[in-house]
Write a sequence for this structure.
């Protein structure tokens, strides 16, 4: 299977190569080392100067590939929507995404995803960890792994942010053995982190004084009992202080009103704009969640609603990153836990379908304006370029410059960054 | 198929005919001359079934996507289909092989609902662009563009008096329009038929069907409520019965025991009862009296139902089913010629 370049140009047959892609990666070193996967100091410095970022658009519940990236109009499985041409001749997507269609020259559609799983929880684990779920095991999610491998050692703010429609506050446990420094901080409702302002009862002077006392006590403790856990504990305090000092970084209201209007005056529009703001301020890993697509009933009505929001926000997001020159350093991934059945059920719904569906990537080493993989005419199976969750996990990281054959050193134990039995999609990365 | 009107008895309703297309049906209408039942389905064709024997003729080439709605011009000379590509297409109803005779790009997004005026001179369409449009049924000329809805238009209905048009949307708003000048007169509050699910962050429900009683005193609005899980269709069917003058809800027809039910269409019968068709775990025809909340009878259908239309004789109903069938239901005692039990 090769990439499909509709223009058939020679230039497109040579994938862009990021210098980091040739890097050798070895053990991760100390657990707090943000560049642990890159052990050559010169290259690590280069990375800092060209800091890679990953932003994941998580279409929670199972976005229908047939209503988005791989439409099959006019077939018994195609549903009621038409397909439309895009900015790349020969590539068509659903009519529900007309604005995104105009950004297709930045995107790579991966249309042959098969994870052989239709259960939400198991499929989500696969897609987020790149591995099979084994009882008792808890692998770090893609965001944490990306933060661990991409975040500069001296990065002061939380390097892994999840922007969700609601909820929020605190860190999750998605970093597992990588440690809390790489776990996501959730910004619910697009709001800055909770409790990130100084209480009225504490003056700046008294806060400085109490932090100084804490640091002295911490240093004294570390002189005798330095452990990774103790370091992470101290780091969390310093990170919180930085977050309070740079609270504006998380404040989407600082973005121009015109951009709020462009992105859409809904949760996803605001959250996408916040993601852009965070990336521009150097946040290495951002995930934007959009809920929900688990449309067993009236799938088409709900996809009209949901994708209208996605189309506007996502198209602006891609365009802005491209215009600002950020696509070279930012990997965009649009994923879900699975797709939806080609069969339309008797309630106008589509059910869970992990066998033949699509994800999207853009930026970094990902070639632009192409498709990879193919499903049959009715979308019921992959007929070319089949990939799974493990291939995708490798590819995301490799596209951002991580050598996914490397390992993390976790308390003296070498743990593979990605499933060693799998590999990136070389046809995409070149 | 004519039977004396006095024999109407919904409690004796039964299936008399079953005709197949090859895709699930979305909608069905019977032409004013009672020659054909025309259905639209999950494909880009319409199916014309001859009511005398079920002979099927496929109407193709007029639209893309799915057919969603139907109406007829004066005396049923033309059948007009509305489709998910936003088009309305005129077909000569009785032609041996009907071809599209007029295609109009009517809406941006789906055409969800259509109706023809009682005299057949006008056709109304409601679409996903939140606009209601009124057309000259014979010429296709645009008569009115009615704006103001803030959600997809799920239902349109000409008032039997001829002077008003009603339209219902996803958000549970029913608007009454003056057909003499195209202005909005008033709104009915049917928000009980709308749900915004904060967890799933979706709007759901809507005014799926409208019917004005023959005496013009009652307006029925059908749909669903108590939608605890829209994505799984966990809800119950509901009909709100408005007093036409006061606009107050006089009755809520709640129908127990129908899981995932949605009232797709309503029709008033000659005995003053209201008939609705609902899908859910199974298809069902429901019958209510205006003065009682619960249904006084229900006919369980062989498959999920999505639409229905009352025959001009008032005794037969055409029902569109997911299993690709159009079934004819007789609302009276069986006859010697009943072909299907």
């Amino acid at each position: 299977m090769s990439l499909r370049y509709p223009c058939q140009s020679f230039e497109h047959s040579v994938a862009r190569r990021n210098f980091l892609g040739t890097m050798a990666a070895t053990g991760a070193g100390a657990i707090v080392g943000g560049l642990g996967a890159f052990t050559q100091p010169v290259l690590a410095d280069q990375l800092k100067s060209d800091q890679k970022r990953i932003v994941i658009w998580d279409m929670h519940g199972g976005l229908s590939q047939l209503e988005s990236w791989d439409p099959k109009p006019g077939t018994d499985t195609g549903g009621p929507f038409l397909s439309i041409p895009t900015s790349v001749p020969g590539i068509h997507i659903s009519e529900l995404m007309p604005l995104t269609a105009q950004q297709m020259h930045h995107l790579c559609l991966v249309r042959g995803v098969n994870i052989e799983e239709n259960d939400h929880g198991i499929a989500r684990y696969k897609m987020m960890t790149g591995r099979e779920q084994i009882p008792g095991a808890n692998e770090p999610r893609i965001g944490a792994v990306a933060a661990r491998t991409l975040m500069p050692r001296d990065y002061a703010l939380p390097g892994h942010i999840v922007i969700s429609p609601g909820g929020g506050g605190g860190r999750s446990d998605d970093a597992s053995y990588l440690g809390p420094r790489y776990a996501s901080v959730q910004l619910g409702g697009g709001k800055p982190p909770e409790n990130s302002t100084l209480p009225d009862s504490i003056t700046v002077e008294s806060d400085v004084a109490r932090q100084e006392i804490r640091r002295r006590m911490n240093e004294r403790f570390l002189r005798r009992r330095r452990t990774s856990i103790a370091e992470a504990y101290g780091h969390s305090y310093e990170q919180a202080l930085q977050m309070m000092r740079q609270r504006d970084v998380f404040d989407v209201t600082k973005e121009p009103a015109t951009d709020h209007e462009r992105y859409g005056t809904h949760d996803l529009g605001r959250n996408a704009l916040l993601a852009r703001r965070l990336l521009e301020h150097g946040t290495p890993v951002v995930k934007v969640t959009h809920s929900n697509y688990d449309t067993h009933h009236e799938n088409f009505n709900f996809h009209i609603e949901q994708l209208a929001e996605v189309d506007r926000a996502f198209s602006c997001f891609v365009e802005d990153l491209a215009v600002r020159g950020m696509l070279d350093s930012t990997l965009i991934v649009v994923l879900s836990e699975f797709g939806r059945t080609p069969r339309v059920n008797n309630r106008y719904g589509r059910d869970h379908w992990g066998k033949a569906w699509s994800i999207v990537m853009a930026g970094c080493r990902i070639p632009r304006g192409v498709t990879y993989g193919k499903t049959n005419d009715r979308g019921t199976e992959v007929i070319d370029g089949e990939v799974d969750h493990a291939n995708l996990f490798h590819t995301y990281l490799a596209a951002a410059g991580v050598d996914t054959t490397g390992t993390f050193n976790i308390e003296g134990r070498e743990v593979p960054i990605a499933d060693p039995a799998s590999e990136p999609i070389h046809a995409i990365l070149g | 198929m004519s039977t004396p009107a006095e024999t109407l008895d919904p409690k004796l309703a039964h299936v008399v005919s079953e005709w197949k297309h090859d895709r699930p049906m979305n909608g069905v209408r019977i032409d004013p001359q009672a020659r054909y039942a025309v259905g639209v389905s999950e494909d880009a064709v319409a199916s014309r079934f001859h009511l005398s024997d079920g002979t099927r003729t496929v109407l193709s080439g007029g639209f893309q996507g799915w057919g969603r709605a139907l109406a007829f011009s004066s005396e049923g000379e033309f059948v007009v289909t509305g489709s998910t590509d936003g088009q309305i297409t005129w077909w000569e109803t009785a032609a041996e092989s009907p071809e599209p005779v007029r295609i109009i790009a009517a809406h941006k997004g789906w055409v969800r609902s259509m109706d023809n005026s009682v005299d057949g001179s006008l056709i109304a369409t409601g679409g996903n662009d939140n606009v209601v449009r009124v057309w000259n049924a014979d010429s296709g000329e645009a008569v009115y563009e009615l704006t103001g809805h803030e959600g997809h238009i799920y239902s349109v209905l000409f008032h039997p008096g001829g002077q008003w048009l009603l339209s219902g949307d996803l958000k549970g708003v029913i608007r009454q329009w003056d057909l003499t000048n195209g202005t909005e007169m008033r709104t009915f509050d049917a928000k009980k038929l709308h749900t915004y699910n904060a967890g799933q962050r979706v709007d759901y429900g809507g005014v799926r069907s409208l019917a004005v009683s023959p005496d013009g005193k009652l307006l029925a609005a059908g749909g669903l409520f108590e939608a605890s899980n829209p994505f799984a269709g966990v809800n119950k069917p509901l009909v709100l019965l408005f007093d036409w003058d006061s606009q107050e809800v006089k009755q809520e027809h709640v129908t127990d025991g129908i899981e995932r039910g949605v009232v797709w269409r309503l029709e008033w019968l000659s005995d003053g009862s209201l008939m609705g068709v609902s899908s859910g775990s199974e298809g069902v025809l429901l019958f209510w009296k205006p003065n009682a909340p619960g249904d006084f009878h229900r006919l369980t259908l062989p498959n999920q139902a999505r639409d229905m239309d009352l025959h001009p004789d008032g005794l037969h109903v055409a029902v569109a089913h997911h299993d690709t069938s159009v079934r004819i239901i007789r609302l009276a005692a069986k006859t010697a010629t009943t072909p299907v039990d």
User: Anything to note?
Assistant: The interface with chain A takes residues 23-24, 42-44, 64-66, 68, 84-85, 109-110, 128, 152, 198-204, 230-233, 260, 279, 303-304, 322 of chain B (CB under 8 Å).
